[in-house]
Give the backbone structure.
Amino acid sequence: MFKAKISSILAVGSGEGFQGVDDRVLEQPTIDIPQSFRSFVEGALLRVQTQYPALRFRATAAGIEIASVTVDDLDDLRKNVLHAVYREKIYAETLPLRRALIDAVTAK
């Protein structure tokens, strides 16, 4: 899940002997999406937007661009975005099979 920003809390301490959180912000990083998965990006972005309503995503030719995100949050975000794209691919590819199964079960 998206990590909460705690840099303001860390600033209160003395900081002596403490390695703080890397809260640098990356402006418009892009998560690369393999060519074979790019047709599923639009559907996946709907799921990702519900998980991260404060972030803004945009589909590009290379993948998914994020408006801004901290360096620490990028790995978790990348994992969740790629998972959403993969789930969208599975959903789209199995939809005809599920429909056929439902039709076969409900047909009299």
